[in-house]
UniProtKB/TrEMBL annotation:
It holds the Pfam family CMD. This is Carboxymuconolactone decarboxylase family protein. Signal peptide: none annotated. Residues 45-124 form the Carboxymuconolactone decarboxylase-like domain. It comes from Rhodococcus daqingensis. It comes from the Bacteria. SUPFAM superfamilies: AhpD-like. PANTHER family: 4-CARBOXYMUCONOLACTONE DECARBOXYLASE FAMILY PROTEIN (AFU_ORTHOLOGUE AFUA_6G11590) (PTHR34846), CYTOPLASMIC PROTEIN (PTHR34846:SF10).
Length: 200
């Protein structure tokens, strides 16, 4: 259960209802973060516009590089909703989601390319607190992806940090967008048990 109650369609204003209808058609159901954010209609609209603009503008990097970096960020923060939703998006894009089971061992796994490893390591360095990004790392990424590619990668990782941390803080957990649970955040079930307290 989320820490802030989602807005039911019957209680939503016209603009929110339109947003719900669009999201329901696109994803099969309304993503729970949308329904929680609907408690603040102006931010709901701002977020929807921003997400659409970012999606349209992020076309420099290959999809696998961008999506793996975003997925790793969500996995590292521990946002089970973002991991679930991100897995679905990768599957719909025709990307290999089976290898996500080895994301924890990406440095040694033969399933990841050198470019993918560099992007994942950058996601880790950006997501650390404080950040651990180095000049050498950014220079290497620029050689691989170009200056605009580094900016896009940085933006996407930063945005996923915002999404993942907001969803985690508000208690939004996986919604079942991705079939099965092979790609769940490995510590999600344990954290739910700990939050429930003794005797859970």
């Amino acid at each position: 259960m989320t820490r802030i109650k989602p807005v039911a369609p019957k209680d939503a204003g016209l603009l929110i209802k339109v947003g719900y209808k669009f999201a329901g058609r696109r994803f099969g159901e309304v993503p729970e973060p949308f329904a929680v954010l609907a408690n603040h209609p102006k931010l709901f609209v701002a977020s929807a516009r921003h997400e659409m603009a970012v999606q349209k503008g992020s076309k420099v990097l290959p999809a696998n590089i961008r999506e793996l970096a975003v997925y790793r960020t969500a996995w590292t923060v521990g946002c089970s909703w973002c991991v679930d939703f991100g897995s679905m998006l990768m599957r719909l894009d025709g990307l290999d989601i089976e290898r996500l089971q080895q994301i924890g061992d990406y440095e040694d796994s033969p399933l990841y390319s050198e470019d993918e490893r560099a992007a994942i390591a950058y996601a880790d360095a950006m997501t650390a607190t404080p950040t651990e990004v180095t000049d050498e790392q950014v220079a290497d990424l620029e050689r691989r992806f170009g200056r605009d590619g580094v900016v896009e990668l940085t933006y996407q990782i930063a945005l996923e940090n915002q999404r993942s941390r907001m969803n985690s803080a508000l208690g939004i957990t996986d919604q079942g967008f991705n079939s099965g649970d092979a790609c769940r955040v490995p510590w999600a079930d344990q954290s739910v048990i700990e939050q429930a307290g003794p005797g859970a």
